[in-house]
Write a structure and sequence with these properties.
- This protein has helices spanning about 5-25, 30-35, 40-55, 70, 80-90, 100-110, 115-120, 125-145.
- It is mainly alpha-helical.
- The chain has 2 domains: about 5-70, Orthogonal Bundle (Arc Repressor Mutant, subunit A), CATH 1.10.10; about 80-150, Winged helix-like DNA-binding domain superfamily/Winged helix DNA-binding domain (Arc Repressor Mutant, subunit A).
- It is rod-shaped, with a radius of gyration of 34 Å.
């Protein structure tokens, strides 16, 4: 709030209290303007500035409704949880070897079948199936225990 409005707000507060005691009621805007030696418009500007500066509670009921501002505005952003999961998964992928990461990429990014993956990487479909199962189990275990991600990553044992 500009300095002149702040100064007028302090004067308005003092005069409001003084007039309330003297008049035994809340003073009107014209009475406040005369007491503060300001125009009615200046008093209204100061009052508007004071209202704009007031902070309401997000948990206060809105009008007659029982809903609060907190309930009416905003929502949980699922993107944060997704970002956390992605960061955990990226860190967990460090415990599996490059071949296993490539097999996961082919399966889940390119949506290839186990037979198609086997052809690309030169393994049998059964071997790809075992590698996928073991790698997913390693990732699941690693993600369930994220403290292990802060230690140097150990390479997952590979099936030859």
């Amino acid at each position: 709030m500009p300095r002149d409005i702040q100064e007028r707000a302090a004067l308005l507060q003092t005069e409001t209290e003084r007039l309330t005691v003297r008049l035994q009621r809340s003073p009107s805007v014209p009475e406040l303007a005369r007491a503060c030696e300001l125009t009615v418009e200046e008093i209204l500007d100061v009052m508007a500035g004071e209202r704009a500066r007031a902070v309401g509670s997000l948990d206060a009921p809105v009008l007659q409704d029982t809903a609060t501002l907190h309930e009416l505005h905003g929502d949980r952003d699922g993107g944060y949880a997704l970002a956390e999961h992605r960061a955990t998964l990226d860190a967990a992928l460090g415990v599996v070897g490059p071949r296993e990461r490539e097999i996961l990429r082919l399966r889940f990014e390119e949506d290839l079948t186990q037979s198609q993956i086997a052809e690309r990487v030169g393994l049998s479909q059964m071997h790809v199936s075992r590698l996928l199962r073991q790698t997913l189990e390693t990732l699941r275990t690693t993600c369930d225990h994220p403290t292990s991600l802060s230690r140097p990553a150990e390479r997952a044992t590979r099936v030859s």
